[in-house]
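Two proteins were folded this term; both appear here.
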Amino acid sequence: MESMVTLNSLFGGIYEGKKVLVTGHTGFKGSWLVQWLHMLGAEVYGYSLDAPSNPNHLALIKVEMKSIIADVRDLDTMTKYFDAVQPDIVFHLAAQALVRASYDDPVETFSTNVMGSLNVFEACRKTKSVKAIVTITSDKCYENKEWIWGYRENDPMGGYDPYSASKGCVELLTSSYRNSYFNLNTYNKTHNVLLASGRAGNVIGGGDWADDRLIPDMIRAASQNISVNIRNPKATRPWQHVLEPLSGYLTLGWRLLEQNVSYAEGWNFGPEASSNLSVEEVFNISTNHWDKIDAVFNPNLAEHHEANLLMLDCSKANKLMKWKPVWDINITLAKTIEWYKAYYNNNEIQTLQNINDYVSSAQKQRVIWAI
């Protein structure tokens, strides 16, 4: 299926012909990103472990790209690969991304997320072609006080569980490298690299089969005609379609490649306040789109502490970057559930259609990256 909208001109046409390296390209967000980058005309490269699930989104979309299967903790292999590729920009998404898994193996979580990020920055520092780095952390990087308003980019880093703490550490590491090696005061004097970070909320969409995530758990159960056990129905999160933060990351990369030093900072990319819903509310809306979805609410299944209330304040990106979300929670859930229904019922992959629909919606709303 070919693109139905003109994509090469998006994001100022900055990605057409660029060498873009994505770490974590076999993961959920990474696979959607490489598909979109390919549609934008970029020359896409990947560095990641094997896909974390079967089925997996990357194998289903069959995107044209070059990649290596390797660990971000392997600095020697990474440095050699970066040197061979000579990328213009690096999107760093590779991570251990699950809260409950971080309780089971905190050493792997911290070593992958923190030391892996350190290795990415080192490989970039040693690769002359790199002009921009966008590292992806999480809304959980903030010290969560369970308050009723969203966290801003200048709020303290923190993290109760190992995963959240590791993402806070990555933000501190990013700041350290920006100050020590990619200092804005010496840009285009001693170095030519701009480094920024993106923080997103709970990302959903088709093609995610990770364990311990609400939508994949619901979908797996529905595909087997069983009920899903939901352990924390009152937990509130900033739900957003995967294309929302990706549009933010791509906008950020666009501005960095334009050599705009003011964008080399941390940025929140979250939904409108109306999309901050409880797990139970998300479940109830989802049942409207697939009658096979059923659940048993069982808070006793919660083995570890998990945040109950977490929201992002995206005023900075809204005002300074002119970025804004495109799809509300109802469209987001409809697109997500329909993606899975098409896959399970018709063996159909709607990823390209979703990207086209999202771009079309953004163009109608005159969003900055789409015009």
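Next, the second protein.
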Amino acid sequence: MNTLVFHVARPVTLWALHFITVYALISGGCGPRALMTPDMLRVTISLVTLGAGIIALWFVIAAQRRRRGDLNDMEIALANAAWWSAVISLVAILFNAMPVALLTSCTG
């Protein structure tokens, strides 16, 4: 049961790391020093999002398999929570990249 609690927290932690990375890259690329060009920023964030999306999709598939095992009632509830956590985190990771997809440059 203790490992199922970690399976609930893992996708949310991945989303949080992705969120921090995306917005750190945006502030680094669009700040006064402009550490990278907007095109390089888009490519970097796309690659980070692709990597995090693949890992989150793997969490969804793994959580789906865990839901099918022979578990007691508490473990079933935690397995369902892990699956929903993975699905919501996958959607959140995809939406984290929306500012980069919608904005053409760093100007407001």
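The chain has one domain: 2-99. The mean pLDDT is 85. These notes refer to the second protein only.
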